[in-house]
Amino acid sequence: MPNQKILYITTEMYPYQEDTNMAAVVNKMALKMHQEGNDVRVFMPRFGQISERKFQLHEVIRLSGMNIIINDLDQPLIIKVASLPGERLQVYFIDNEEYFKRKQYYFDDEGNPFEDNDERAIFFARGVIETIKKLNWVPDVIHLNGWMASFVPIYLKTYYESDTYFKDAKIVLSLYNEKDADLDKKIDEKLQFDNISGLKALDNPTIKSFVIESMNYVNAVVKGDEFLDEDLDKAFNETATEKSEYLDIDSINQLY
């Protein structure tokens, strides 16, 4: 079914990340939908490991310059864009010196999770939402990949609930076996600042608990990894949201 506007929000995508299933799956899904005549855009964080020179990233001045308030602090939002190498498929990068310049993703060199991982996820989610609105491009399908992306539907259905911009968009969440870690215990105060409260995930805020929470805010959940770890698999089996077992890339458009 061509001529759909499909938005991929992801934390990983080949070739910007290599050797992970998520990065490969997102690349293949986006390319397949693009080649079938759909209007596809991808949003991801501009982690410090992604070479701006190698991948020819450049700042989009008209989209940059917004400030997003996280925990009462103004954080500047910088938007960079590149075309997927060899393809006319645009990838947008959410950037901020404070949150994304470091070379590691979520854990420091000793394996400890970054204390601001929660703020980075909030900034990423709100940055994507605000930039899409600024683009004046309304997606038909939003496909979420990676734990930071799971904050997007939570924000859309709470903080942005009265905003009709995304009201007709269908949201798909792919589940992957990602390394779990605690999030800052004060995340409840940071979300409260955006009038978000009452989330079950706040009882024990972790990467995984927010992914599980986000299943309640989407239209469909699909296995991104064929076999999920015990907690995710249990949540997948128990969710009342429409769900699909692992799909090969050729079947993904059936889901849409």
UniProtKB/TrEMBL annotation:
Key words, A-Z: Glycosyltransferase, Transferase
EC number: 2.4.1.21
Keyword hit for Glycosyltransferase: yes
Catalytic activities: [(1->4)-alpha-D-glucosyl](n) + ADP-alpha-D-glucose = [(1->4)-alpha-D-glucosyl](n+1) + ADP + H(+)
Pfam families: Glyco_transf_5
Keyword Phosphoprotein: no
Location of the Starch synthase catalytic domain: 5-178
InterPro entries: Starch_synth_cat_dom
Enzyme class: transferase
Protein's UniProt name: starch synthase
